[in-house]
Write a structure and sequence with these properties.
With 248 residues, the chain is an alpha/beta fold. The chain has helices spanning 40-48, 70-74, 92-96, 109-122, 139-151, 169-186, 197-203, 230-237; strands spanning 2-11, 14-24, 29-33, 55-60, 63-64, 77-80, 157-161, 189-193, 206-211, 214-220.
Amino acid sequence: MITLSAVEKTFGTNAVLRGVDLHVPRGESMVVIGGSGTGKSVLIKCILGLVTPDSGVITVDGVDVTKAPRDAFLARFGMLFQGGALFDSLPVWQNVAFRLLRGSLKRPRDEAREIALEKLRRVGLGPEVADRLPAELSGGMQKRVSLARAIAAEPEIIFFDEPTTGLDPIMSGVINDLIREIVTEMGATAITITHDMTSVRAIADKVAMLHKGKIRWTGPVTDLDSSRDPYVDQFVHGRAEGPIETLR
């Protein structure tokens, strides 16, 4: 579904992506791990066409992302943002149905609300939250609303950016399980960015490690602990000593 070939991106003198090669098959859940500042978010922005690579090719379902019609192309994606990114002034149901109330995916208002209520139910929230504002919800509930919004338009591809940031371990487990279930049910192709190894093991079919702008290792999540790659080993086990430089 998604292929990156020799993708490079530099901002000024900072080479963020230095020849990234990555293949994400249709219906697979890929988790990209790596330290802060290694280029994970830029990678997603390049796939979405929000950032144009300096060189290399990115295709989605065989189509070069730089040549795809924007509205139709972006309609295929859903996104769960790291901070939730809910609109404070809109009630919950309008947040969930945001894409269904405007643009190429626009539906009648009543239909959009019904879809929003169904997606809220799917993430474990009842209709009583639909007319509340995001500020009236707990952090875990806000994250569920964000997940409901990500799947509201039945996307083929979903990106999850640090989906458990700021959540306690129990709620993190709930969100991880929901993501795994929903991706499987929808048959969606998923790319998740996370530092949380619990999330990695719960969500991933395959894992790719991005370090200094290159994919150092990729393989099934079941091979993560036996990768024999010193960078992967240090990151997975959170060791201070190893080839990955740490500030002291």
